[in-house]
Amino acid sequence: MTDETAERDVMDYDVVVVGAGPAGLSAAIRLKQLAAAANRELSVCLVEKGSEVGAHILSGAIFDTRALDELIPDWKDKGAPVKTAVVRDDVYLFRSAESAIKLPNFIVPKTMHNHGNYIISLGRLVRWLGEQAEALGVEIYPGFAAQEFIVDGNGTGVVRGIVTGDMGVAKDGTHKDSYAPGMELRGKYTLFAEGCRGHLGKQLLKRYALDEDCDVQHYGIGLKELWEVPEGQSIPGLVVHGAGWPLNDANPGGSFCYHAGDNQIAVGLIVDLSYSNPYLSPFDEFQRFKHHPVIAQYLKGGKRIAYGARALCKGGFNSLPKMSFPGGLLIGCDAGTLNFSKIKGNHPAMKSGILAAETVAEALFAGDEGGCDLTVYAKKFKASWLYDELYRSRNFGAAMHKYGSIFGNALNYMDQNWFNGRAPWTLHDRTPDYKKLKLAAESEQISYPKPDGKLSFDKLSSVFLSSTNHEEDQPVHLHLADPNIPIQKNLPMYDEPAQRYCPAGVYEVVGEGDARRFQINAQNCVHCKTCDIKDPAQNITWVPPEGSGGPNYAAM
Which of 98, 160, 314, 437 is the most exposed place for a label (fewest CB within 10 A)? Predict the structure, then answer.
């Protein structure tokens, strides 16, 4: 949080970038590359709320190098951590806790074929990109959360940069001895690359009505674990995707199991946040999923070494907002550029950052003093391969929502394999995910098995593996618009689903009868943003805690 009366240091740059993910780092790198090529000076500052670049990065991840090839053509010679090529795709329809059907490749939508792609740790890749950016002269400030954006006070609505959060504020709002006001980082242009459901991106969408002409955004929550397994048990380069059990058409999602090198396997479950049963717990669905024989065969005897969770944007092309506004651009997953038909968001994010950098550099090199609405970005976007890729995948998510996993996949197979993504129809889903939740009285309660400590685990031990930490004496960063709603409304109507949709045990209903209260264990928060998305009353707003707080993912 920030104190409006505080005196702040002010630093001026040509471009301020918010977020050191693939979009923000690609934009920063490309800006410096263009400046060097034109023999011009561009000052670029990048702020990152994690304790270091990569600390808050979590992705599957199967990586398409298309954007990296453009950004850093000699990435192999420079030692990019992109090593394990995909050797095989296995796609399963999980029928029950014991059975599954392996689908022949010829009936799998071609967007899910991964020949030529790599299994990577995105955390390692963005750390490497951070090194490339710093070598080019980008100023990177990890541990500083962008808390607010600066808007001209003259009525023009121009964004002029950001304010980082104050440090050393106690829970009651008073200043501790360690208090330090945040800085104003001012830029001619500001690029927002916060990732899915960005705190500032959400405000920008509303302030500038950027999403008034598109479908609502849709989301999933991705839960991931990294395992170290016995020698010879993994098959480096094997990609396993699945649909069906433990989820279903009313509560949809999919799974992944990626075999990296060094006897490591990344396993995860993506639960669509359009799910309808308020008793569903994405975390517990993931834990029981790992007991399926198809997955257990790869994990048995292994050791779980990391855990994390993160929301992802899956609305795709139909949910893309206007990305420009006076003084800045939304890029990457802040704008929702993930291609859900490929289950890939990293190369689209990088390309959107590259396009943003080229747009801003051209404007500044032409004498622009900043503050314009760079609508030319939309033209560049539309002329790019990224637009074409997302357009061809526009029906994928909506087909699954409308027709379920079997008929939806059949429709997607026709769309992608027969029409090459140019089917003569466009499907829409305009209902927000939080509105899909049914009342508890209309829903079946779910009994989850107890974790066995070998394949399945509890939330608190999982959060421990995420290395999550927050300064305890600080204001709670999960804001309730009305503190009465959880107990008075959500509990009788939905059995307060926050107890279950949070993958880190942040929310609890404690006490009995009239003494029941809603408890927020903010220290556990892994910054997944699920609560901000799924709360049926839209009563919870996630804001950044004190800088460097949150998970510290080493290689996720």
Answer: 98
CB 495 within 8 A of CB 278: yes
Helices and strands, number each (H, E), in the chain: 15, 24
DSSP 480-528: ESSTTHIIIIIHHHHS-THHHH-TT--EEEESSGGG-EEEE-GGG----
User: Is the pLDDT score of 1 beyond 70?
Assistant: no
Strand partners, 91: 241
Assigned token pair, 516: 């029941």
The pLDDT, as a whole number, for residue 72 is 98
DSSP letter assigned to residue 164: E
Pair 215, 209: CB distance under 8 Å: no
Domain assignments of the chain as residue spans, ordered by start? 10-66+124-215+318-392, 396-431
10-66+124-215+318-392 under CATH 3.50.50.60, yes or no: yes
pLDDT at 145 over 90: yes
**CA dist 64 to 112, 235, 335, 339, Å?**
12, 20, 20, 11
| Distance, CA of 59 to CA of 224 (rounded, Å) | 8
What does the pLDDT read at residue 153?
Answer: 85
Which tokens is 121 given? 């740790």
Copy the structure tokens of residue 70: 């453009």
Read off the pTM.
Answer: 0.96
